[in-house]
C-alpha cells in the first residue's frame, strides 16, 4: 500500500515506485491488487449547513468551483497537504483504498512514456481539467500516468522554467506581488517577509524554500543577478561558494530595490489580470516589465521533459535594441554580460540551435616564477578554485592524506575578499615555461563555456517554446509590451477623465450648497439622494468584489438596496461624505485649479504615443542604471582602500626582477 501526500509531489512518489517495480519486477504489476494506494482529500469544502465535500485533486476541485455560479459565498475552503483525520479515514477504508490494475501492454507503454522516453508529446496532449475519477475502485496504470502523474510533471515544469514575459517562476512572482502589495520600501527580516508572502499569496509549500527564493532574488555578487529586485541588507551570500554562505533568514533583512519600480511601473498595476484563489487575490499570470528581465538576470532550470539555460545580458544592450525596434531599425546581436565580471566572454561558432561562448578569467605574469590571478570565469567559485590550487601544489595532501599526482605549483596565497578575487601563484621556472607552452588558461582551468542552444521559456500563452537567440526573445517581448503601452494609455485616459468628472460634480455640488440651491442639513438621506439624482449629478457606484468559493472579507458592510432606477444612495457618497469645512468658495477655487491641471494632463496624454510612453520609461530606467554603476564604482573604491593595493602589499619575495610590462593572459597561448 502506497501512502503519500495527496499533492503533486505525492503523485510523483507513487509514479517512482510504480516505475521501480516495472523496471525490475514487471510481472508483479500484473498481479491483481498487488499494488494499492491510500488516498486522502487535498481540499475540503464546508457549507454553512454542515455539508462537507472532499476533493482528491485540484482539477476536480476547480471543476466543482466553476459550477457554483452564484452560490459560492456559503462555502468555506480548506487545503490539506497532510491530513490529521487519519482515524476517520481508516474507519472507511474501502472508500480511501484504491487498487491498481494491469489491463494490457498499453499500461506498460504509458509507464515507459512517462519515465524512459521523450516526454514533450506526452505533456502536450494534456487537456486542462483532466483528472482521475476517485469514485472508481480500480485504477488502470495508464489512467494514473495520464490523469494524475501528468499533473505533477506540468507543475514541475512551471516551477522550473520561467515565463518569457517577466522572467519569473511562480514563487518569485508571488514574492514580487507581495512586495508591491505591501509597498515594501522599509526593510524587514527575510523570515518575516516569507511569512507575509505565504499568507498573502496562497503559497502552499515550505517557508524555508520561500526564504531561499527571496535570498536568491536579492543576491548581487558576480555571476548572480545583473539587477537584483530586492536589496541584500546583510550576509546574502558571496561568490566564494556561489551564495550558499548566506546567513539564516532570521538574521538578514531585505526590501524592494529602488530600481524595481522603474522596471515594473505602477501605471501597469491595473492592466494585467490577477489570479484568484478562493476569494484571495494573488499574483498575476505574469508581470510586464519594460525590458525582458529573463535576458537581464538569465535563468536556469530542469523540469520534466525540458530544461533551460539563458545567460545574463547587459540591460543597456537590451534597452539599445528596444530603441532600435521603436525606430524601425534592425537589432544588433547581444552577447552575454555579467555585472562586475572583469574577464572576457568570446563568441565562438554560431549554429542553427544557438551560439557558444568561451568565458576566460584574468591571469597576469608578474615575473618568471609568479602569476597573479585577478578574476575567475563566471560561476567558478573562489573556494572551489582554491581547492583546485591545493590539489596541484607541492607537498599538499588531500583529505585522505594522499599527495598530488602531478603537482606543478610551488606555493600560492589568497589576498582577495568575498567580492574580489586575488591569488598569487609561485611556480618553478621550468614549470612556468611548461605552463606557458601548454597555455596558462588551459593549465590553470581558466576557461568555461556557455551556450544559447537550450533557451526554453513559457510564452505569453503559457506554452513551452524554444528560442534560438536572445534577439528572438526580445522581438516577441517587444510586440507584447507595445500592446500593453497602448492599453496603459487607454486606461490612464479613462482614469483621468473619470477624475475630471468627479471634480466637475464636486464643484457643482459645493456651489449648490453655498448658493442655497441644495440643503444638506436636517434632511433624510433618501430625499437628498433623490434631489441629487433629479439635478443630474453623476452616480459613481462603489467597486464590488466578485463572490467566489471561500471568499472572506475583513469587513462586512450592509448594502443599501437599489431603488427602481437601479441606483443606490451610496452612489453619491463621494459627494455626501465631503467634510463640512470643504463646502466653501475657497474649496471651489482649489477644485477648479485641480480640474485645469487634470485637463492639461489629459491633453498631453492624448497627444502622447505608446512609443513615447515607452521611451520615457526607458530614460528613467537608464538614470537608475547610472546610479547602479556609480554605486558599484564607489563600492569598488571603498574595497580597494580597505584592503590596500594588492600589487604593492602582497606578493612573494623573489630574486628575479619583474618584467617592465607584465603580460596579461585572456586568450590561450599557442
TrEMBL record:
UniProt region (Disordered), positions on chain: 639-670
Stored InterPro entries: DNA_Topoisomerase_II (IPR050634), Topo_IIA-like_dom_sf (IPR013760), Topo_IIA_A/C_ab (IPR013758), Topo_IIA_A_a_sf (IPR013757), Topo_IIA_B_C (IPR013759), Topo_IIA_dom_A (IPR002205), TopoII_euk (IPR001154), TOPRIM_C (IPR031660)
Alphabetically ordered keywords of this record: ATP-binding, DNA-binding, Isomerase, Metal-binding, Nucleotide-binding, Topoisomerase
Domain Topo IIA-type catalytic: 161-618
Superkingdom to which the source organism belongs: Eukaryota
Pfam family, one: DNA_topoisoIV
Protein name per UniProt: DNA topoisomerase (ATP-hydrolyzing)
Record-listed E.C. numbers: 5.6.2.2
Cofactor(s) needed by this chain: Mg(2+)
GO annotation, biological process: DNA topological change; resolution of meiotic recombination intermediates; sister chromatid segregation
Domain Toprim: 1-36
Biased composition (Basic residues): 661-670
Annotated Gene Ontology cellular component terms: nucleus
GO molecular function: ATP binding; DNA binding; DNA topoisomerase type II (double strand cut, ATP-hydrolyzing) activity; metal ion binding
Active site: 251
Family to which the UniProt record says this protein belongs: Belongs to the type II topoisomerase family.
